[in-house]
Amino acid sequence: MEMSPSKALPDHGPEKKDDGLASSGWRPIHYLGSKLRVLRTVQEAIDSVSSSGSAACDLFAGSGTVSAWLAQSRPVTSVDIQEYSRVICGALLNPVELPIPMVRENLSKALDISKASGGLRSAMPMIELEEKLLRRAADGDPEGLASLIEAGPILTSCADRSGSEIGRALLECRRRLDEPINKDPRSTMALRHFGGVYFSYRQAAELDAILDAANHAPLEQRVVLVAAALATASEIVNTVGKQFAQPLRPRDKHGQVKKSLYSQSARDRYKSTFEIYLLNLEKFLNLKASKFDNRAIRSDYSDFLSSPEFHESVVYADPPYTRDHYSRFYHVLETLALRDDPKISTNTAHGKTGPSRGVYRMDRHQSPFCIRSQAPLAFEKLFSKVAERRVPLVLSYSPYASEKNAHPRVMTIDQIRSIATSFFASVDVESVGEFSHSRLNRTDLNKEVSFDAEYLFVCR
């Protein structure tokens, strides 16, 4: 059943201004290794090596929880090489005021255009088919739904060659997308890349409409509007664990459709994109503005530390811990933030090469901190560049508890300490106490939890 504009764009009353992201327990996106539970400990370590109110640099800022927390007491520059992080941190660090009625009006216009001649009109054959197959699955026949999910995204699917029910709908959808009015690939990017895979086809087309409205807004409003779209994507994504590493696998290893497929799919694919978007937008708008001048910058950590833009008095760094590149878990958010049309990476299996099942970007960032052979040099570069600035460094890292069969870390605590002492006169290593990180999506890939899961290197 199609959602009416009034239901899609609900009106919410004003909420109380939030005096701090962490105090409300809200984080904009689901994030691996989030520091939400150890913010006070991180702040205490930073306060111990820098004067009150002095400027801090949050390298590898990620979802921005540390940046937002520190901005309550000092100026903050958040730095991350990913665009989605810059957008989210920008919205957290520098809240803006926006009249919700105006946002609702602009969204309604974008929705009307999308229905009349844009993404929603183009996607309608796939939307109607998906909703029909979901109903069939609810009635006990999930085979069609499984086949639809396996078909992959509109961008790379070969199902249109099969002459099947899915193939015919896909062919008509592609014909509509090829019409001159859809010549700008950005206007249907989420639909073509991620519809049916990470989101329902309707949700993907609605995300495109939201991003279109955001990118037509004044420049000073754009960051928070896009940030709310990223938070919405993180909430409605249809995967286990709410990450973007892998779409659902509808069948077991024997080729049988999983009994949980309908419940797993319906749990997220029926969510209202616009209702969740407006709720997330209000959360951003209701954050209390910092009294300091804060910045969110997209940059490689090494480039920023060498940049003339660096003028901070203390650096906090939270580099990746494992061989799992973070960009693999957030590539969808990166594409939504950039709103580009990236090439899709390929995989070769059983002698056949095809598009990656996760629809990964070809240019997905590969962090040297996640590569065992490159990590020592990356840490050396980090320590040396901060030391050259003659400012203290607080670094987070999670140890590898081999006796607990924990998920392997790239470096050991002793290895990092050894490198740090080459550049700093004093290096203290402190445990933050009992704490466990988010685990991987599949339970069979999970390792035993290590509760002593975070250490701080305090380097002077």
TrEMBL record:
Keywords: Methyltransferase, S-adenosyl-L-methionine, Transferase. One of its GO terms (biological process) is DNA restriction-modification system. Residues 9-20 have a biased composition (Basic and acidic residues). Pfam families: MethyltransfD12 (PF02086). Residues 1-22 are annotated as: Disordered. Its EC number is 2.1.1.72. This is site-specific DNA-methyltransferase (adenine-specific). The lineage of its organism: Bacteria, Pseudomonadati, Pseudomonadota, Alphaproteobacteria, Rhodobacterales.
